[in-house]
Amino acid sequence: MTRREARVLCMQILYNADFSEISIDESLKNVVEGEVSPMVEDFLKLVKDNLEKIDSIIEASLVNYTLSRLNKVDKAIIRLATAEMLDGKTPKKIIINEALEITKEYSDQGDHKATSFNNRLLENISKNLN
């Protein structure tokens, strides 16, 4: 499994948890059958262990917007990217690029509004974490 595939699966698990209003662990069981890649487990652990902090960082980085108004797919993408930035093992530029590529594939509706919005938000988050 590539890192991108692991990120996409994590986004789907996080989305399912938020949409279904269940825990990330329950969502994992609903979305994945069989063994889970250690990379996916690591990404999910990062989010679970820091969810309050992640949401606080996102909320502080939004301009004239609230976390609750975010599209659930975008929220999952941004949460994962923020968790990775907090972890500090991957350069922020790579994290942002990966998040935007996932946004283009799963959230953008051809008008690039979601990609543009997420790019600005992720740049704000990156600056706030420095």
Shape: globular
Largest sheet: none
- Radius of gyration, in angstroms, nearest whole number: 14 Å
What letter string, H or E per element, gives the SSE order? HHHHHH
Task: Give the helix level as a range of percent.
Answer: over 70%
Contiguous helical run count:
6
Key descriptive features of the protein:
transcription; mainly alpha; 6 helices; single chain; 130 residues; RNA-binding; N-utilizing Substance Protein B Homolog, Chain A; NusB-like_sf
Task: Describe what you observe in this structure.
Belongs to the NusB family. This is Transcription antitermination protein NusB. Involved in transcription antitermination. Required for transcription of ribosomal RNA (rRNA) genes. Binds specifically to the boxA antiterminator sequence of the ribosomal RNA (rrn) operons. 36% of the residues are buried. The protein has 130 residues and is mostly helical. It is built from six helices and no strands. The chain has one domain (3-129): N-utilizing Substance Protein B Homolog, Chain A. The mean pLDDT is 94. Helix 1 (3-20) packs across helix 2.
